[in-house]
Amino acid sequence: MQRDKLPTIKEIAKRLKVSTSTVSRALHNHPSIGYITTYRVHKLAEELGYEPNLTAISFKQRKTYTIGVVLPNLSEAFFSTAISGIEDFAATKNYNVLLGQSLDDPEREKRIIETMKTHRVDGMIVSITKNTDNYDHFDQLTKYHIPIVFFDRIPEKKDISYVACNLESGLLQALNLLIEQGHRKIGLINGPDQLIASNQRKETYLKGLTDNNIKPDEKLMVSSSLSKESNQQATSSLLELKDRPTAIITFNDYVALDAIAIAKKHGLVINKDVSIISFANLPIWEYMDNRPLASIEQFPYRQGEKASEILFSFIESQSSTDESTEPLSNQQIIFDSELIKHL
Amino acid sequence: MQRDKLPTIKEIAKRLKVSTSTVSRALHNHPSIGYITTYRVHKLAEELGYEPNLTAISFKQRKTYTIGVVLPNLSEAFFSTAISGIEDFAATKNYNVLLGQSLDDPEREKRIIETMKTHRVDGMIVSITKNTDNYDHFDQLTKYHIPIVFFDRIPEKKDISYVACNLESGLLQALNLLIEQGHRKIGLINGPDQLIASNQRKETYLKGLTDNNIKPDEKLMVSSSLSKESNQQATSSLLELKDRPTAIITFNDYVALDAIAIAKKHGLVINKDVSIISFANLPIWEYMDNRPLASIEQFPYRQGEKASEILFSFIESQSSTDESTEPLSNQQIIFDSELIKHL
DNA sequence: TTGTAGGCGTTATCAC
DNA sequence: GTGATAACGCCTACAA
């Protein structure tokens, strides 16, 4: 009962009184198999409702037709959009996507990577945890020849492939826009110091100001741990300066939400008394009344697509029988962020 | 090079001059294996960095330790939250999650279901497409003894397991709240007629009104295809009635966003001139100035958890060797929605 | 054009 | 306690 056998290649072979290899080849339309045989096999397969057993194929071929995707958090629009891009691309290759959420917990991340490794995924796309500082579990993957493409949150490590977004372009556009509009005191609410993302923002911010002959003011640069309270406090500290900024650039949209709320509490009118520009992760600013002047867009969907594209180039090169081709070298793709104004 | 062999049970056996069966048993701490042997096996396995090959195990055991999850759209907060619940639960069982997005395209849904079937997932959680009207691909799953739990968007079909949310409770609370506040002309912007979800809303709406001795007014009930334009048009049609509603209940938050925008264009003050209540799918109303008075919450995370729980009860009952236990019967769980006021 | 046979890594059923 | 062996479903040299 439990074991009412599903049709297999063997079954078809038996009924047709041919060998399993013939059936296998016929099903793959191997040219060496005669037309009639091929036809009969296909026909019977159809009748029996035969479907190849991928677990057997995976086992035999050492390929699972599955990629693993590990992201910090699916509930962030940035990541859920990215995974759409990944999933779409994988679908075109007839691949499935094994999903894991690290929830920014390095231990959990490690566990996920490991179970995906035992699943023998053909490749992985990973956006690391905020706190990942040990990359051993990633190195382990090379042992299994599992290619990995990092994405957005990438480790500080040489010889890896990744897709990320260059915050510089968008941020410089943002600064230019603000400066054009006459702003001279432009604040920055940055993220935690240990994040690369924070450093990038800070450096570009400094560069953008000095390029425009504005002397950066230490007091205008604050950090937030990205909790709501911290965001609010950072905003307050800026707005309560006796020489308060007339524009603020925030680490991301969530910070912007809190900043906007606090600014309003201070009786300020958004984008009039204080202009806000932030790094995009929300899809619905258009619906909000008090929204940033503009967002620095990072194109998560396209990034996801691109990461998949690179990953599949590895996967496909691996399975190419051509032994002579040398291994593909790592690729680092950096998208330019872009300033999108909210009208 | 390509084939630098990974350590296997066989390798360990050879080195230790024992049989593979001994190694296998030792690794599982089988009681019949001597303490010393067990120890030596574990030690060598560790040294070699042995890791079980799940593809082989899946093949042999007819279990993949993977569940498939098919959702219409990950970029909707409702679903991305739900999948968190599913993923968390699966993780406790050491299961992986194979993800597919149907994007509300029945063809795509069918394809996903099929590839998951060939992957031999141990079970599936599915929220069907808006347009799914053929359930053959689901029936196919029973052939492979793949249990399936439907979730939120469930097919009209007997003998299935599902987890869904009873909209009635929350919607009645919403109506009561509005009526308490003195509203008598309460509009409904519903979704497409063919959706069960729309019918449920409509029926409950009618019931809520009549229970409160308010005679439903056909003109106050409109439908939207859920596109932005359609939402706007539906809202306008309500607001331009000479006897316009003083409160509107919308099909979901996205409709509410459009409705609010249009209401403002009509010069109305939200929740003063016209109160809005909607079915929740957005996480960030708290940041918005013009937000609904309240949302009808459907607890996606908990629903996802519950769906997983049911699914795993099936999965685990299947693998129980006890032949005598009769198959678990289907379960239908219905959560109560709840009205959450936005202060 | 088709068949034979071996093997992928693991577990399970017998034996001993 | 431990070992031999078959089996899971499929693919692929190698033969014929």
UniProtKB/TrEMBL annotation, chains A, B:
SUPFAM superfamilies: lambda repressor-like DNA-binding domains, Periplasmic binding protein-like I. Keywords: DNA-binding, Transcription, Transcription regulation. InterPro entries: HTH_LacI, Lambda_DNA-bd_dom_sf, Peripla_BP/Lac1_sug-bd_dom, Peripla_BP_I. Residues 7-61 form the HTH lacI-type domain. Pfam families: LacI (PF00356), Peripla_BP_1 (PF00532). One of its GO terms (molecular function) is transcription cis-regulatory region binding. The keyword DNA-binding applies. This is LacI family transcriptional regulator. It comes from Solitalea longa.
